[in-house]
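Re: beginner question about structure tokens

> Can someone show what the tokenized structure looks like for a real chain? I only ever see the sequence side.

Sure, here's an example I had lying around. Input first:
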Amino acid sequence: MEQFQIETAQNISINQNTAHLGDRMLAYIIDSFIIGIYIVLSVLLLVYMEVDFEDMWALYLLLNLPAFLYYVLLETLMDGKTIGKSLMHIRVVKIDGSKPNFASYLIRWLMRILDVVITSGGVAVLTILIRGKGQRVGDIAAGTTVITEKKKVTLKDTILSELPEDYQPQFPQVTVFSDSEMQTIKELFDQAKRNSDHNVILKLDIQIKKVANIVSSLQPIEFVDVIIKDYNFYTQRL
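And the corresponding structure tokens:
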């Protein structure tokens, strides 16, 4: 799993973890299975309906249009996910931090012909391994990548977090918050970083400054991170 940094239009840097190649392959297998089942059922439906051979191909193509457009439709409607991606907790995002649009998903889908179909996934795997940032050719063309949303439970996922021995706190006002309030702040902050949700981080920045009466020139993502560390510093020494 590689980590890369997203630089947003607000000059906020957010670290993201690219999805494991294995997770992407499993998601592809799941999606392929779903598409295959859909196609088989459509054929059985046509046979059951006793459609004339002359009309069968036209109806077959019409019925299987959703299967043909499976990836571009689901990623557009499900915020960068397909059923397989959703089950594997991975998602398509833009490298520049903006929200992928239909054009982004369309480019990825069109390039899938080269990445996956013609080369049986060989080009996609090779590009992901060599390029870095979890990008196949379609991702490079669309300016996207695939990240993991799996949450690793560590000490950092609780209120407590490890601090260096020489850590110097900046905001003693953080003690106005309770443990439950700081836990909520940390959960929202961690989730916002994973999802590249800059609006949540900005709202946390504004609300914390308002409640604790703090003035700071730090970037929102840096400020909230310092607030959490300062809270740990003071509460661990009570």
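Each token stands for a local structural state, so reading them left to right follows the chain. The first helix runs from residue 21 to 48.
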